[in-house]
Every structure is written in structure tokens, then in C-alpha cells.
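Q&A log
Question type: sequence-to-structure
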Amino acid sequence: MATISPTSDFAMVRDRAETPARTRDPRLDFYRGIAMFIILVAHIPGDPWSRWIPARFGFSDATEIFVFCSGMASAIAFGGAFLRKGWWMGTARVAFRIWQVYWAHIALFFFVAMSMAALDNSGAFEKSYVSALNLQKFFADPASQMVGIFTLSYVPNYFDILPMYLVVLAMMPLFMALHRISFWAAALTSVGIWAVAQTGVLALPAEPWSDRQWFFNPFGWQLLFFTGFAFMRGWIPAPPVSKLLIWISALFLVLSAPFGSWKVFLWVDAWNGQVGDAIRDVWPLTKEFRDKTDFGLFRYMHFLALAYLGWVVAGDKGQRLVATGTGALAQVWRVMLTWITKVGQQSLAVFVFSMAAARLIGVFLDAAGRNFASVTAANLIGFAMLIGVAYVAAWFKSHPWKSNT
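Response status: OK
Response body:
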């Protein structure tokens, strides 16, 4: 189709307009790196540190950070390919990424399933780790469930983020084509798909023996992904730094916290029982807006408010993230910033590793007990492993075996 040819005048103008999206924003890697550490903590079974992750203080959590930043990263990694090489080559580039993520999902499942089975077979533990992940039916009938794993018609709990990401990635060629028509064609399609997803019509079955759905409905979550994508491609202008917007965002985060978090609600209830009763009465009315599976409206609003404040705090091009002093604290922060950024740059490898490591760290805590020392050691060692994986992944991606001559 001529309208999606990179040689057309329209395409060249659009390509020049979106040139900034080819430059990786340091804020993207920083916040995505933070999300990777939070995701590890959130998935360690019985980790006391998980009581203090963002999910305990509002509607949105680290999942939103991951999806939004993935949309931004995809705008850099894949969006430009559509414009420089054409729609078909851009689609091929996305298909290759889908292939990589698909096999990462498959490998993650089988490694974790094997690890849990090995722990149960060892007889060293009183509990069943296979049962803890609800994988009994897989091991009871692996022949039929194997087909479900590979076709994504069986998506066990704990293994549901990457399948959602796969479907969202597969929608990218559609939105790139729609954007050739107009921005509003792409935007209204995304909002329309999200709105239909809120009705439950687009729910995907997660297992053949029950009515359980995918925990993350990709048709709902695509709205957040393509919001990040649109910001990074320049389809949506960056919001202004405004005191009014800062106050609105901050007040929304604070005032909505008791409605979006059981932890904050308990604090409010202990402070004033009447206020707690009033909030308790409202909770059923806001259930659909808080829904995580279909990505309810309040989650979207909460994340946008949080992202805006994070964007303002980081400063233009992330300049406030960089320590300018020469003292010890500045030097420590520079090292930490380097580590966090590296983790954010290698998010797929780090994410897959963290999901596997989290279960094994939970086993360590089961054996060592969950006292202050063991919990601190387990989490810090987990963080160190994520950093190590990020550097190893970056080393392999640099193709050091290739000749420089």
C-alpha cells in the first residue's frame, strides 16, 4: 500500500517529526528498572517487604509501570522500523519480538514447574510447592495441558504477564496502520477496545476446566501500553509542568489511597471509624473502576497522576536523576542509578529471571524463617542477582565475540 510506504512524502515528514523517539530516554530505563525490583519483591512468597510496594498505597502498581514503559520502549525499538522500512518490515520486526517473548514465557513456565516438582520430590519440605502454584492439574495430565501451555489456552496463575504482553505487541501493526489514517483513528480504536473489554466480552479463558480468565486482559491493558507508545512517538505532546497539575495529581493520589489500598484503608479506619465505614460503603460501587484484570478506569487515572509526578520530579531529560555533587552520597547514588538503569535496559531478561528467582527465594525464606535478617538478606541478594543478570544480558547483546576490525 502506498500510504504506508517509507518512501512517500508523508512518511518522510512523519519520520522527521518522530525522530526524538529514536533516542532512549534515561527516565524510561530508570523507572522501568525500579519496576523490576518491585516486581521481584511482589512475587517472593510471604515477603514482608511486599507490604510496602506501591500496590499497597493506591489503585495502580508496578505492573502499570512495566506496561507503560514497555509501550515507550516499543516506540523506540519498533515504531521507527515501520517508518523507515515500511509497514511489512515493521510488522516483521514486531513478529520477531513476539517470537522471543513467547519462548521466554514457555521457558519460564517449564523452569519454574520443574523447580517446584524437584522440591516436592526431594521430600525435604512439608508443603507442596507444586500445589502452592496450583499446578496439580498440569502434572496430573501433562499431555493435554502441554497443548494448552503452548497455545496459551492454559495460562496458569503467576505466568500471566508475558501472554498479555504478547497479545498487545501483536496489536502494534494495527495501530501503526490506523495512525497513517489519523491519530484519532488509532486513539479512538484503542479507547473503544478498552471500553468493550470492561464489559467482559473480550475475556480470554485461562484454563479449560474452569471459567477463570486471563488475569491480565490484553484488550484492557493495551490502552496503557499504547498511551506510553504514543507519548514516546510524539503522537501525544508532553504535558506542561504546571503547579495546578502537580496539585491535582498529588491530591488524587492521596485522597484515593484509602479506596485503592487495604493498607491505607486500615490506617484510616483505625484513625476514624466513621470515615472507615463511609469508605467501606463506597468500595462496592467502585469495584469495576478498580478492576485489575480489565484495567479499570481508576487504575488508569491513578497511574497517569503518578507518572506525571514522576516525570516532573525527574526533570527535563532526567537531569534531576543525575547527582552533581562530589560527596559520598552523590557517588553512591551515581552507582545506584547506573545499576537501576542497566536493569531497566534489560527488562525482559531481568523479568524472566526474577519470576523464577522469586519462587526460589521464597523457598529459602521457608527454610530460614522470615526474621529481619533473613528477609533483608533475601531481598538484597535478589536485587544483586537482578543487577548481575542485567549486566550479563547486556554483555551478550554486545556480541563481544565479533571482530572489531
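Response note: The radius of gyration is 22 Å.
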